Amino acid sequence: METTQEKEILQNLRTQLGEEIIRESRMAPDSPVIKVSKEKLIDALKILVENHEARLCTISAVDNGLDFELIYHMSIKGFIIHVKTSVMKEESKISSITGIIPGAMTVEREIWDLFQIEFDGISDPRPLILPKEWRENKVAPLRKPMGGIVAEYQKPTVETLMEQGQVFTMPSTVKTNRENMQLPEVQTTMNRPEALKEIQEVARLVKFDEKVGYNWHKKKLRY
Amino acid sequence: MSRNKEYAMYWGCWVPSRQPSVEAACRKVMDRFGIGIRDMEGVSCCPDPVVTERLQREMWLALAARNISIANSMGMDLATVCNGCYETFFEAIETLKTDNTLREEVKKVLEQIGKPLPSSTSLKHIVEILGQDIGIDEIKNLSTNKLSKLNVAVHPGCHLFRAHDREKVRDKPKLLEDIVDATGAKRVDYGIQRFCCGYPHRVVEEEFSLKMMLAQKLERMWEEGADCIVVSCPACNIQFEFGQLELKRKYKMSFGEGIPVVHVVELVALALGIKPEEFGLHTHRGPTKNIITKLEK
Prior knowledge:
The complex is a heterodimer of chains A (about 220) and B (about 300). Chain A has 2 domains: about 5-135, NADH:ubiquinone oxidoreductase Nqo5 subunit (Beta Polymerase, domain 2), CATH 3.30.460.80; about 150-220, no CATH class. Helix content of chain A is about 35%, strand content about 25%. Chain A contains 8 helices and 9 strands. In chain A, the strands form 3 sheets. Chain A has a 5-stranded mixed beta sheet, covered by helices on one side. In chain A, strands 6-7 form a two-stranded parallel sheet. Chain A has a two-stranded antiparallel sheet with strand order 8-9. Chain A is elongated. Chain B is α/β, with parallel strands linked by helices and about 300 residues long. Chain B has 2 domains: about 5-125, Glutathione S-transferase Yfyf (Class Pi), Chain A, domain 2, CATH 1.20.1050; about 135-295, Rossmann fold (3-Layer(aba) Sandwich), CATH 3.40.50.11810. In chain B, about 55% of the residues lie in helices and about 10% in strands. Chain B is built from 14 helices and 8 strands. In chain B, helix 7 packs parallel to helix 12 (about 265-270). The longest helix of chain B is centred in the first third of the chain and has 18 residues, at about 55-75. Chain B starts with 5 loop residues before the first strand and ends with a helix. Chains A and B meet through helix 5, helix 6, helix 7 and helix 8 of A and helix 1, helix 2, helix 3, helix 4 and helix 6 of B.
């Protein structure tokens, strides 16, 4: 349930960050979660620290296969607000918050050790719990291999669906056969660009692209 | 028989890009019986009822609803030649009727791409159009009796058993058998018609799919003297045709020169006396020429 205090904090964040608060949900009835882009993370935490006297409890890191989720648990006068952000595994890099919360340094170093996420601008970048050679030579112990929900054998199906709206391409032999049979031109998304745009828009609206980990630029899954 | 009936024909992904002979045969057969089929412009994959639905139901339903909405805009009932597409549209129509939350989500998505939520839609598999709109007697009357020497193993495919009522699950598979009988071909009883061809398993465990599922069916069909296999689903067609090539190449298992596979509309086309070259029967990967040889004997 949203208290007056919570309402005030969220309103303040909304006013100052606007659309940058991507999503709001709840971890427990008295425990709100806000999701911000990693570019706006520092701004969000700064508002909480400077305007609401928030303290950092700790940072959780979750490897979901495609992206890392970092959750900054902030305590504000008796209740906890969780600020969540995502880091793409291909980048594995985020700004350190030690500039505004110096005490975050040990947690960031631990996460760097265990997940291989680099904290840019951290006040002390040395390894915390692993030998110093580890970062250069070995995979971080809690880092999973890059992977998403689409199984290997399903990848061509999903990629062709996203690129053409159909799950099969048209081989040139079949094209010739169709002409020989005097079949009409196929009128699907395969050769109707405006219809294909609709399919791709649907994929974005329902966040199918995010869920399967599709890279629109490369027209391929990210794994 | 309902002549002059027109359908919004959803060809799917397989048929236009892998089995154009099914599309050609269907167009000719429907024309012969006075059933109009109109192509649906701008349709996407149905999407497939296995991969996409499992990955994200909202995406699957939104795309299916968009396709159904295109049929609605044509003012026609929706028809398909594919069991998989039939399964998707059947379930999508049911879901849009019964799941208020998903329906509202899909409505919002469609609104954003300028499409309305589909209204009540009637869906037909080509087997129903052949067996009910055209009618078994009509097919029998127009069949040339050329197929009487042909022994046919019918494979209905799993999704053809989809029905609203439990008592009706065998209606469409029975209709498929009746259509084959009406063509004059001799249907062989190989005992495991309901058994899956193994297509869905192939992409997960190919050896199991080919040796434990496909080969089981092929052996029984071969033992019963089938000259060809008749399917109502392009995916089953691919499994039977390419699967036999793979069984031979990888596991040294073969059934004579291979058992040819045709879609039921192709069988009806042959029965009506439409020449095989007119609808491209030779474009199959299996030995469909053996069907012609048998008929010419």
